[in-house]
Amino acid sequence: MAFTEQERADLTSRADEIIARYPKPRSALLPLLHLVQAKEGFVSTDGIAFCAEQLGLSEADVTAVVSFYTMYKRGPVGEYHVGVCTNTLCAIMGGDVIHDELRRHLGVEGDEPTPDGKVSLERIECNAGCDYAPVVMVNWEFFDNLTPDSAKELVDGLRAGADIAPSRGAERLVTWREAGMILAGYPDGQASTGQTAGAPTLAGLRIAKENGWERGEKAARRAPDETPARSASEETSSATRERS
Ligand code: FES
User: Fold this and answer.
1) 89 lines ligand 1 (CB under 6 A)
2) Which of 150, 166, 189, 234 has a beta carbon 3.0–4.6 Å from 230's, enabling a disulfide?
3) Rounded-to-integer distance, Cα 94 and Cα 100, Å
4) Which pTM does this prediction carry?
């Protein structure tokens, strides 16, 4: 996608800001690709050439990075890109069924957007939200504990322009291009809004506290004649000493 003179000037000015954050220009490649993606909606061949030129890299270097990371797209996706986690835990909890139902419901395949350009669909790997499985991401925001029906309601709402908030984290859902700007390093002020760690995430900590397993407490509760268990590293160094 060829840039207009104005677009190129805007991109170059932002690129200068991003590159200045790093000791070496090439370290700015990932945010720069997000910047280009925010402008184009995906990373085109011209976008790759722009990044290469700004960073003194070859276009092959940049293409290798773009094609490695699935968060960068080589063609248009929807205004709301829906990622259904089908990794182990989410799949067991219904992620595969959700993905297949959405695929049928939307009539799309791969990253291809719906004809109105509103929604696209992708299988994604674990997003560290397993405690809320099955998880769906929309523009990298969490929608937790979904079912095939609630997932279909979600995409219908997105296509209808309903006011939809993520289950946790940011209180307002941003568009695909807005998410690109955030990932390029231009926060939208929502990083510390909304709930982050909920009850399922904190369940282990709660159980530890209830049982007095917090750091220091277990040692204090040990009987005076109880020999403390040795850690794996202590066992290893002891075995090494005995051999020598
Ligand atoms: S397996 Fe789906 S978030 Fe971890």
Assistant:
1) yes
2) 234
3) 10
4) 0.84
Q: Which mutation among 84, 86, 89, 122 tests ligand 1's pocket best, with the greatest number of atoms within 8 A of CB? A: 89
pLDDT digits (tens, 9 = 90+) for 174-227: 999 999 999 999 998 888 888 778 889 999 889 998 998 876 555 455 555 555
129 Cβ inside 6 Å of ligand 1: yes
Contact status, residue 160 vs residue 188, Cβ threshold 8 Å:
no
| Tokens at 240, concatenated | 């090494």
CA quadruple 72, 76, 82, 84: dihedral sign:
negative
Q: Has residue 42 got a pLDDT over 90?
A: yes
Contact 40, 181 (CB under 8 A): no
Ligand 1 within 6 A of CB of 85: yes
